Amino acid sequence: MSDSANEVPEEGVEAGSQPASGPAPDAIDEAIAEILDAAETEPTEPKSETEQLQDLVAERTGDLQRLHAEYANYKKRVDRDRLLSRSAGIEAVVLDLLPVLDSVEAAREHSELVGGFKLVAEELEKITAKYGLEVFGEVGEPFDPQIHEALMQMPMAGDFEVATVSAVMQHGVRLNDRVIRPARVGVAEPDASAE
Question: What is the overall mean pLDDT for the chain?
Fold first, then answer.
């Protein structure tokens, strides 16, 4: 007798049926046939040494270009962060110096800015101007709520058509075109009876 006739099916598997796990033999045969067909259609000649070197050069050139682009982006990011850090440091120092600058301005208004102290004050103002500090807020300029803080309404002589600064209690401060302290002012409204 042949061995195949005496085979007894395993428990849970009927005679002539596939086991539950694993691919079907037909699927395996089809996959092998596809691989063999693909191998036959591909050129069987190995690449020449020149072609291999050209491929290697192209690969390395691509790697170098990617690395160069990454470095350029990194450099831009570091430069931007450095500039922001520098600006934040300057702003912190200027904010700490504001009371000193206010005292210098008060001394100037009371004619107490004389002698060596005057030279020190002028040098301090030159240095702060070098870093972009600008003082603003003068009597007679149009009132702008974005840069002025109105503390009171005060009459002002003269003919004007828009709300105008009539008194300055505290000058405003800009640092590189950014208002870090608004000017505290009195505001005069135009005379409505003149119309």
Answer: 82
